[in-house]
Amino acid sequence: MGCCSGRCTLAFICGMQLVSVLERQVIDFLGYQWAPILTNFLHIIVVVLGLFGTVQFRPRYVTGYAVWLVVWMTWNVFIICFYLEVGDLSRDSDLVLTFNLSMHRSWWMENGPGCRVTPILPPPSWAPEDHRYISISGCLMDFQFIEVAHSSLQILLALVGFIYACYVVKLISEEEDSFDFIGGFDSYGYQGPQKTSHLQLQPMYIPASLWKQNNHEEGERTQ
C-alpha cells in the first residue's frame, strides 16, 4: 500500500512537472530563449522516463530522474540569479540565454500583466532595422519577477519529486529484496525439474539352445 501511494504521488508530481515545463517551453519559444528551450527539452525527456520508471517499477529510471532533478534545480537557481542580477550577472546580456543569436528578452517583458507597449517613432539610429523600438509601462509585475516565480515553482516541484523519487526507489528495492528472500528471484534456491532418462541398459540373457541354433544357421550361410 505504501509503495502504491508513493508511486501514485510521484506520478502526479511528474504530471505537474510536464504541464508546467510545457507552459514554460512555449513562453521561451515566443521569447527566443534558446538556452532555456534546450534545457526544457531535456527536462521533458527525463520526466517522461521517470514517469515510465515509476509506473513500470524500473528503479534505474527513477534514480536517473532523481539525479537529473538536482541538475534541474541548479539550473533554475542560476536563472533566478540571472534575472535578479546577482553578482556580475546581467539580464541584459544576449550571450547567456539567447547564445547571442538575437536581441530578444523574456516574453513577459512585453506581455506581462497590465503592460502597455508603445512604439517609439522614429526609432533611434542605432536600433536594428528588423527590430522595433518600444516603451513599456504600466506593468503590474516586472518580467524578471515573473521569471523568478516560474523558476521557483520548478525548484519546488523538483525538490518534492526528488524526495518521492528516493522514497519510491527505496520501496521498490525493499520489495525486490523480500521477493528474493522467499525465492522469487533466487536462481540458487530454485531448481527446475531434472530430466531423467527412461531408457536404461539391462543385461540380456540368451538361452543356450537358441544360441546354438543361431551358430548353426550362420555356419550354413558360410558354406
Automatic annotation (TrEMBL):
Query: Keywords for this entry?
Result: Cell membrane, Membrane, Transmembrane, Transmembrane helix
Example GO biological process = regulation of sodium ion transport
Transmembrane helix among keywords: yes
Tell me what topology the record assigns in the membrane: Multi-pass membrane protein
One Pfam entry name:
NKAIN
Residue ranges annotated as transmembrane are 34-53, 65-86, 151-169
Which locations, inside or outside the cell, does it occupy? Cell membrane
Q: Name one GO cellular component term.
A: plasma membrane
Q: What is its main location?
A: membrane
Keyword presence, Electron transport: no
**Which positions carry the signal peptide feature in this UniProt record?**
none
PANTHER family linked? SODIUM_POTASSIUM-TRANSPORTING ATPASE SUBUNIT BETA-1-INTERACTING PROTEIN 2, T-CELL LYMPHOMA BREAKPOINT-ASSOCIATED TARGET 1-RELATED
Family membership = Belongs to the NKAIN family.
Descriptive protein name = Sodium/potassium-transporting ATPase subunit beta-1-interacting protein
Quick one: which gene encodes this? Answer: NKAIN2
